[in-house]
Inverse folding.
């Protein structure tokens, strides 16, 4: 049986993640995080568009990679880290304005590799892009400890309830 995720850990982690310089650069924010899922949002701004007036594909790739990464977070033991091996992105339709809602879903967390899917929808629920990410497990690392260290934060509550 898997351990229960500590809600206080998630409540403290989400605002910390949203302080991340890269998240702020892209104006993306984690809105929900739990066992096997993550939801992000980004309100499209001029900075997200390429010189042709379309949302840059790199934004979709970053959103998919981020939602996939954090979707597997709660499925992993506290002392495990991960990093992306690859990300695939399928562009389905253009987005011109408004909010993008990104949902990541954990598919499998093994001893060495994790797999997650993510979809990018516009604010009306229309599919804009989809993709997946493979991540390699890094034993002896702690994602939350790395986040706390990099963002110079106080320690988070324990990830799991006893």
């Amino acid at each position: 049986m898997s351990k229960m995720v500590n809600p206080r850990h998630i409540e403290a982690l989400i605002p910390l993640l949203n302080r991340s310089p890269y998240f702020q650069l892209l104006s993306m924010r984690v809105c929900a995080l739990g066992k096997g899922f993550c939801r992000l949002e980004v309100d499209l701004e001029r900075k997200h568009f390429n010189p042709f007036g379309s949302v840059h594909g790199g934004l979709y790739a970053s959103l998919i990679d981020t939602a996939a990464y954090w979707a597997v977070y709660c499925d992993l033991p506290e002392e495990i880290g991960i990093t992306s091996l690859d990300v695939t992105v399928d562009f389905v339709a253009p987005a011109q304005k408004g909010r993008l809602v990104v949902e990541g879903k954990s598919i499998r967390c093994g001893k060495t590799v994790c797999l997650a899917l993510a979809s990018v929808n516009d604010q009306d629920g229309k599919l804009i892009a989809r993709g997946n990410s493979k991540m390699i497990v890094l034993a002896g690392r702690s994602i939350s400890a790395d986040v706390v260290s990099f963002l110079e934060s106080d320690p988070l509550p324990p990830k799991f309830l006893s």
Observations:
- The helical segments are 7-18, 21-26, 57-73, 143-150.
